[in-house]
Structure formats: C-alpha cells, structure tokens
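Good morning N.,

You mentioned wanting to compare the apo and holo forms, so I went ahead and generated the holo version with 2-acetamido-2-deoxy-beta-D-glucopyranose. This is what I fed in:
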Amino acid sequence: MDLLSNKWIVNLLVCCLFIGVGCNSVEKKIYVHLNYTVPCVRLLNATHQIGCQSHLSGNVGVLHVLESEENVDWVLRSGPNPPYLVILESPLFTRSIMMKLKNGSSRVAGVAVVAPSANPLEGVSPHTTCPNENTGVYTENYDPSLAHCNVTVWNPLGSGLSYEQFDFPIFSLKDDNDTQVIRQCYMDHNRAVNGSTPQYPLCAMQLYSHMSAVTDTATCMRRNDINFSISPEMVCDPLGDYNVWASTRPINNTAKGHKMWESVVIAAARLDSRSFFFEVAPGAESGVSGFVTLLAAAHALRNATQEAPPNRTILYTFFQGETFDYIGSSRMVYDMQNNNFAVDLDNVHSVLEIGQVGLRADSRLWLHSDPVSRKNDSVNVRKLIESLQTAAKGLNVSVNEPGFSQPLPPSSFQRFLRARPIPGVVIEDHQSAFTNRFYESMYDNAEYLNISYPPNLTPEEQLVFVTDTAKALTEVATVVARALYIQAGGAESQLEGINADPQIVTRMLYGFLIRSNNSWFQQRIPPDFMSHLTDRPTNFYVGVAQQRSELTHLVQYLLANLTGSTANISQDNCQNQREDEKDKESKHMYSYVWVQGAAPPNSTKREGFCVRSTVRLSKALSPAFDLRDYTSKNYSTWTESRWKSIKGRIFLVASHDLEVNFPFTPQRQHMECRFNLHLWNRKIPNCVCVYI
Ligand SMILES: *[C@@H]1O[C@H](CO)[C@@H](O)[C@H](O)[C@H]1NC(C)=O
Ligand SMILES: *[C@@H]1O[C@H](CO)[C@@H](O)[C@H](O)[C@H]1NC(C)=O
Ligand SMILES: *[C@@H]1O[C@H](CO)[C@@H](O)[C@H](O)[C@H]1NC(C)=O
Ligand SMILES: *[C@@H]1O[C@H](CO)[C@@H](O)[C@H](O)[C@H]1NC(C)=O
Ligand SMILES: *[C@@H]1O[C@H](CO)[C@@H](O)[C@H](O)[C@H]1NC(C)=O
Ligand SMILES: *[C@@H]1O[C@H](CO)[C@@H](O)[C@H](O)[C@H]1NC(C)=O
Ligand SMILES: *[C@@H]1O[C@H](CO)[C@@H](O)[C@H](O)[C@H]1NC(C)=O
Ligand SMILES: *[C@@H]1O[C@H](CO)[C@@H](O)[C@H](O)[C@H]1NC(C)=O
Ligand SMILES: *[C@@H]1O[C@H](CO)[C@@H](O)[C@H](O)[C@H]1NC(C)=O
Ligand SMILES: *[C@@H]1O[C@H](CO)[C@@H](O)[C@H](O)[C@H]1NC(C)=O
Ligand SMILES: *[C@@H]1O[C@H](CO)[C@@H](O)[C@H](O)[C@H]1NC(C)=O
Ligand SMILES: *[C@@H]1O[C@H](CO)[C@@H](O)[C@H](O)[C@H]1NC(C)=O
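and this is what came out, ligand included:
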C-alpha cells in the first residue's frame, strides 16, 4: 500500500495534444476528476501472485469501447492500432471476456470497467466458488469426502476473477459525466465507421499501477529483508489488522493463558470483505449483516449480564482478515494455544457465529454445524441448537437445521475446530449455497440489503428512520442475544428482558453502509477520530497488518459504548487508563476511551466523557509471519504489493510513434501542459493541452 497517500483520490486527467484538429468534447473539459476511480492491485500468497499491474511508466493504449463479446475480436485480432485500452461496461466484465483479453495481452494495454450506478439484476461474484478452500477445517486429514466443497458449493456464482493474475492494469471508473467524456472521445476519434479504419489522431488512455512485489510472498518478504538492511524500502506487506473483542465479565488482559474458573461462550462475526478492486469492499450481506447483528446482541445483553450474570462469560469477537484465509480467527486460536491471549482454548465452552443473515427468505435462519465433530458425544451441539430454538420462541424468526451431513459454510469457527472439537453453530440465512448473489463483489451494498429511505429525507432523518432491514436484523439480534444468555447458563425467566433495539440497528446500518459521518457515530468516538468519518460507506477491505483500519476503530468505539458504562473520571485519567492518579490495577481489567459526546441543546461545544469497557484489540496478523513460514499450508500467507503511484489520463495521439513513446517524446517538450498538479508529483513537460 502506498502509505503516503493511504486515502488517495485518483484523478484522471484529460489532456489534448495541440495538433490543429478540434478536440470536441475533450477540449471543453481539460481535467476530469474521477473521484472513485480505483485500480486492481497485486496480492501474493505462498505460491501465486494475483491482481493487476502496469509497466513502470504506465501502459498506453488506443481507447476501444467494447460493445459486445464478439467485438473482442477487434481488440485481439482485427483492430489496426494495438495495443488497445479496453473500456468495458460492467455487464461485459465477465470471466469469459477477461480471460480472452488476458490470453491476448500483447494487444491489450489495460482495461477500464465502468461501474454502474445501480446493481445488475443477475448475480455476479468475482470470488471463488469455494471460499478459503484450503484453510478451513475440511481438509483431506479431517474428512476427505467433505474437502473442497465436495458436498456443497457455497458460492456457485463465483467466477474466480478476483484470484486471476493479469499482466495489464485494470481500473474501475464511476459512471458519471466524466466517463461520458471518455466515451465521447472514443466516438469522435476511434470508432470505425462503415468498416473504415479510424485515422489518427486517436484517443488514447494511459494507466499507471506498477507493483513493486513479484512472484509470491516468500520472494517479496525476502526482498523486504534484503532491502531493509540497505534502505527501509519494502515491496510488500502482510495483510492484516486487529480483531476486536469484549467480555461480559472483566478478564485480566495482562495475565495471558488459562483462567482457572473461566468458561467462555464465544460469539463471533467477521468484519472484512473484498471485491475485485482495491478498497471497494461494501460487504453489506457478507460482513455487515453479521457484525451489526452481533453488536446489537451485545447491547441487548448489557443489562441482563450485569443484573443477573450467567455462570459463563460471553466473549464477543469481531475477526479481521477472514476473507484472506481466516487471518483474524487463525491468529486468535494460535494465541489461545500459545498462552498469548486472555483466555486459552480450554476456557472455550462453545462458539456461536453469526454469518450472513441479511437476506432471509420466509424469516428463516439456518443453524449450521459440523457433521464430523458432532458425532463425538462430548461435543454438545444439541444444547446450543436448543438454546437457539428456545431463544426464537415468540419471535418472528424460525430456526432450522440444514441436512445432517452438510459441512459448515466458510466460517471463523472452522479455525477453532481445526484446533480441537468444540461445540459450535454458525447462523446463516441460507440452507445450502449462499443466498448472497453478489458475494465479495462491489454490488454487495446497501441497495442489495434493501436499505432504502422515503424520498426527501435529510441525512439526519435517514439516520433515525427504522428500515425494514433494520427491523429484520433486530429480530435476529434478539434471538442471538437470548441464545447466548441461555448458553452461558442464564435463566430462561430473564429472556423477555433481552431485546435488541431497532433504533440502534438502523443507525449502525446507516453508519456502515451509507455514511459514517453522522451524529450518532460522532457522539461515540474520540475527538481525534472525527476526520476519519466520511460521507461514504465504510471500506471493509482488510488493509495491511499493524495498521488499525477505520472499521476496527469504529467497531471498538461502538462496542465500548454498547457494552460499557460511563465513568465519571477526568479526561487525563481516562486517557491514561486509570480511575484516579493512584490506580494501577484497573487497566488490567478495563479499557478506557475518552469520547467527544454531544453538544447540549443551546451550545456548540461537545461535552466529552469517559467510557469504561472490556473492549480490547488483538492482533489479526497471520501466524505465518511470526513464524516466518511464508509457504505455510496452515496459515494465511497473503501479502499486498506496495506501489508508487496509481493514476490515469486520456489524450489524443497523433501517430503510432507518439503513442508508443508517450510521454517521453522530446519534440513535444516545448508544448505546455495545463495539469491539475494536485496528485501528479510535478508537471509532465511532454504532455500537451489544448488552448482554445
Ligand atoms: C469530485 O471531487 C471534487 C472535489 O472533492 C468535487 O468538486 C466533484 O464534484 C467530485 N466529482 C464527482 C463526479 O463526484
Ligand atoms: C490464446 O491465444 C492463442 C493465440 O494467441 C490461441 O491460439 C488460443 O486458442 C487462445 N486460448 C484461449 C483459451 O483463448
Ligand atoms: C466427494 O466425496 C465422495 C465420497 O467420498 C467421493 O465419492 C466423490 O468422488 C467426491 N467428489 C469429488 C468431486 O471429489
Ligand atoms: C494461492 O492463491 C492461488 C490463487 O487463488 C491459489 O490457486 C493457491 O492455491 C494459493 N496457494 C495456497 C498455498 O493457498
Ligand atoms: C451531467 O450531465 C447531465 C446531462 O448530461 C447534466 O444535467 C448534469 O448537470 C451534469 N452534471 C455535472 C456535475 O456536470
Ligand atoms: C456510412 O454508410 C451509410 C450508408 O451506407 C451512409 O449513409 C453514411 O453517410 C456513411 N457514413 C460515413 C461517416 O461515411
Ligand atoms: C529494493 O527495492 C526496490 C524498489 O522498492 C527494488 O526495485 C529493488 O529490486 C529492491 N532490491 C532488492 C535487492 O530486492
Ligand atoms: C492482572 O494480571 C497481572 C499480571 O499477572 C497482575 O500483575 C495484576 O495484578 C492482575 N490484576 C488483577 C486486577 O487481577
Ligand atoms: C437497561 O436498564 C436500564 C435501567 O436499569 C434501562 O433504562 C434500559 O432501558 C435497559 N436497557 C435495555 C436494553 O434493556
Ligand atoms: C452456576 O453457578 C451456581 C452457583 O455458583 C452453581 O450452583 C451452578 O451449578 C452453576 N451452573 C453451572 C452450569 O456451572
Ligand atoms: C454512548 O454514547 C451516547 C452518546 O454519546 C451516550 O449518551 C451514552 O451514555 C454512551 N454510553 C456509554 C455506556 O458510554
Ligand atoms: C441555554 O443556555 C442558557 C444560558 O447558558 C440557559 O439558561 C438555558 O437554560 C439554556 N437552555 C436550554 C434549553 O438548555
């Protein structure tokens, strides 16, 4: 990741060469800012590299707007001016077309995909059909007949495009007036009319997304080491972040390893998602539906677990990096096995995981469990299923079990089972294959979860409007909360007092899927986090290890607010993790966050306060990197390449020669270019703009 411009905006600069020919629409708009233009970047694992890249000096090609799949022949064979930079409308961004372009990459300079403003009707998933196939519990050693999604193909729509390697850059463009300029440039200059060959000048595009890392993780980590001794210039970084967890009873977080009397019921959900393009990871159904449900359930349990605490502790865990071979859960299990976590595996009583729960048909939930460990009598899955059945009584939710021999869907719980047989259930909205038709795609968004608002509401009115989706997830959260309470040993007589709050669920859905910059989030975060809230949905791509993403922080602060209590202590003591100047013990049991709160009615000054909670972060870095085992078969080995610049522009080229040499043609250097220099490091002297 380009650490200097973590939050970059890619600008696409449109610039014409002055060649005595009118530039039509392009000349009217010399710069085009495409704010949501994003690349596909290179990722590496133990054996492969996937993703995309350009040459160091960018890839240049003559624009070609692909009109149909048959039209690919122009790009690959008949077109007279290769290489081409192919503009694809999203319905044509298919595996079939992309593999043809990949195969003909000598004539393909790059691809720009125009993202639609509304979701497609048919399902699309660039992910694999069998997510995390090699790192779950179902390997040849566990039960060969269940390995490799033999029984259930979870993501049948998966094209696997996200796991292909391309030798050219692929960018996503937002469909707006700016993309219209690109189309127009193509129409005016490059389109073959009546079978004639288009003449120069031609409209061309240049995309830069050169990647520093090559081959595989072992190779790039070795490079990192070599380079580090000379200069601290890294070529790749392990994917990762931090898990967020909290417990219903304070646990001494400084004392790692086994806790004599502790027995914990783990309630888990995953945080991250991905898509084909970098940092485009809306994850509404695949991640948000589950973790918002768990946050709401944790809140619903606050009173009951304080006033009538059940014998067992409930441990809420939110895992990061699960998309990439279970980074977060494998790390927590590893830490539990190595006395490096506040509790160890012997303390784990059972696991309840909330998976994809946002798209329930007929209000049904499916309780998935593992057919292998369940055969062992000591693994009491039945009790957990009964807890869920009891919890669902009287609610508008029916809980069902899928076929007895069906293995677990992809889930963090599989990493616990890999370590030892533990009773557990994964709650999903699907009986077998995913209901989610947009798994790990850019369309798994608020629109897909059916989050919509009456027209003409202001953002703050939308924030508090309780959507049907929020009502439905509230019911699921109530079931989860009640089931956890029973599973932890609580009395059924308390269940009626355990209810998730639709007002909170709707605000969280709004905050994560529509706009994180809203008054509800603002009141629950520290003042210095304000600048991280945006008017866009939160990004759920995991990012690189040892950086805490905005998502991790948000979940940390919300979980503290929803499960913790307000502490009447000074800002100074709060930020120093203590109750008062003399206190040295509390920090082992609690964490403290100073949040900015709200401004009272006739003031503009917020009144901050301290939140005391059991919320903690723990590393979500694959153990493979601690073990320096970069070809590990047990643990995730995913790394992300670094890059220097991601950018693109369009311009007219006067001849084949110019197009190939651009932008290094010396004879062009006298001409001046009017660039928006905002993101380009300096003026590129040989790019020339039109002055009218
Ligand atoms: C892009 O961002 C600029 C400045 O932030 C803004 O003025 C412009 O309207 C945005 N363009 C689009 C297409 O959103
Ligand atoms: C790849 O391209 C070659 C020619 O360059 C062609 O013969 C071959 O059939 C193509 N393969 C596929 C899978 O399209
Ligand atoms: C699935 O497992 C069954 C039972 O072990 C086996 O007969 C079958 O060949 C397997 N199918 C695949 C595609 O591996
Ligand atoms: C690395 O990723 C590639 C592409 O998804 C996959 O085929 C391969 O099995 C992965 N390697 C390992 C060791 O998981
Ligand atoms: C985009 O184009 C439409 C019509 O083509 C026009 O009404 C609208 O104002 C344009 N938007 C911007 C931001 O230029
Ligand atoms: C293309 O052909 C049609 C009919 O053959 C003709 O009317 C039209 O003018 C031609 N267009 C150009 C740009 O030559
Ligand atoms: C050091 O890093 C640079 C770029 O980051 C790379 O070009 C070079 O090959 C690296 N050196 C070694 C020895 O790998
Ligand atoms: C927590 O554990 C640490 C390390 O074992 C110990 O020093 C500390 O006193 C403990 N605190 C409490 C409140 O148990
Ligand atoms: C928790 O208890 C307090 C007072 O005891 C009450 O005001 C609040 O509504 C309760 N919250 C929930 C979620 O039941
Ligand atoms: C819960 O705690 C009570 C009182 O300590 C005890 O009597 C009971 O057996 C415990 N229940 C379980 C399931 O451990
Ligand atoms: C959560 O945040 C709200 C808004 O700032 C505040 O009113 C409430 O007291 C907070 N709860 C806790 C436990 O800090
Ligand atoms: C507004 O502020 C004034 C003076 O600070 C105070 O007297 C008044 O009660 C406040 N009104 C409200 C609604 O808080």
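The CA atoms of residues 44 and 125 lie 20 Å apart.

Happy to go through it together on a call whenever suits you.

Best,
F.
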